[in-house]
Amino acid sequence: MLFDLDDTIIDHSYSVKCTLGALWMMNADLRRFSLREVIGKWRSSFWIYWPSVISGKMSITMSRALRFRDLFRELGISADPEVYTDLAIDFDTLYIICVRPVSGAVPLLRELREREVKVGIVTNTTEEMLYQKMSRCGIDGLVDFAVSVETAGKLKPDPSVFNLALTEGNAKPDETVYIGDTIKYDVMGALFSCIKPIWFNRFNAKLPDSVKPVDTIRRFEPARVIADRILDS
Fold it and tell me: Which of 17, 155, 156, 202 is most enclosed, with most CB atoms within 10 A?
């Protein structure tokens, strides 16, 4: 059984909202705009810098400083470069404090553990962030192995990432299920690797017209019922 991490096991959306909400409250310039607008613009810049982070060209903190710079410029706010660095450092600290599991994720992992199902995590985040989040949520003892972007050297949906997870779990594609929240990176990545995908669609997103219907779950509760459904799929 393979799971994505962010917004599947870990409530990344909440953590970002919690972190930016705190920074928004502390920054008079940002408070001139709605928190919704700030979060929306912040999210849109993620993939601009993330490839440079995973390639080792810049740190996560630096990428966040650049994202704050871009955010301020887009909002028409003038600030000294030190402001962006300070915000990025504060973001690093607050984000981990705000990390929490998706509702029902921990009970489901415990249920799978009781059934002796081998569980792995496949994520596009870094090794450090992966284990910080797992430790923070107390799930490191419920996961048998994890494949980060650094371990794989590639990003999902590249099949090599999923193939590495199969190797780590000593499993075959036709006996594996992968659960993730995105169509592009999770569902399509699993399909490219001949693994059965289950779309974790807790935000009720619309399936793109170009994608064939896929097995979908919207929540992880109750754990026993969801475990039955996943294992029977």
Answer: 156
Three-state secondary-structure class, residue 178: strand
Domains, the chain, with CATH or none:
2-10+102-232 (3.40.50.1000), 12-98 (1.10.150)
229: part of which helix (H) or strand (E)?
A: helix 223-232
Is residue 102 within 8 Å of 8, Cβ to Cβ?
Answer: yes
**Global confidence as pTM:** 0.95
* Strands (DSSP E) found in the chain: 2-3, 120-122, 145-147, 177-180, 196-200, 216-217
Q: Which residues of the chain have pLDDT under 50?
A: none
The enclosing H or E element of 166 equals helix 159-169
Residue 198, SS3?
Answer: strand
Amino acid, single-letter form, for residue 16: V
Q: Return d(Cα 208, Cα 223) in angstroms, integer.
A: 28
CB-side exposure of 37: number of CA atoms within 13 Å?
A: 9
CB of 221 closer than 8 Å to CB of 106: no
